[in-house]
Design a protein that fits this description.
By secondary structure, the chain is an all-alpha fold. The termini are far apart. 72% of the residues lie in helices and 0% in strands. It has one domain (2-121). The protein has helices spanning 2-23, 36-41, 50-58, 62-68, 70-87, 93-99, 102-121.
Length: 124
């Protein structure tokens, strides 16, 4: 009984957040937080532009989302697959184990670090 309630609450929260991100543009709204790392250092973090990318995605602007944060756009299918594997952890333990293999986790970390460096070197 508890699990369906949690799923319902998470779905409701995601719906509300989706509506907020659809209705308000993070570029011009003061409701959304600014990146502390960027403010302090002048360099973009791996997540910089993610809020604007989500807003662009919700409006069907894939090119704009890619310009704001390419890593987020690339990572969404991976995140969805990981969430699926987590939800089916007991039914499909092999998929869960493969997605959580140390090699894949290290590769994902390397990808994030490379993205972080390249976006600051080339000002992406």
């Amino acid at each position: 009984m508890r699990r369906p309630l949690i799923i319902l609450l998470v779905a409701a929260l995601l719906l509300v957040l989706g509506l907020v991100y659809y209705a308000l543009d993070p570029s011009s709204s003061t409701l959304f937080p600014r990146c502390t790392f960027l403010s302090l250092t002048g360099y973009k973090c791996p997540g910089c532009g993610s809020q604007r990318a989500v807003h662009a995605l919700l409006h069907g602007d894939l090119a704009g989302a890619f310009r704001y944060n390419a890593l987020l756009l690339i990572a969404i299918p991976w995140i969805a697959l990981c969430l699926y594997a987590e939800s089916r952890r007991t039914r499909n333990p092999r998929l869960y184990a493969r997605l959580n293999a140390p090699l894949l986790i290290w590769l994902f970390l390397a990808m994030v670090l490379i993205w972080w460096l390249l976006r600051n070197i080339f000002n992406w």
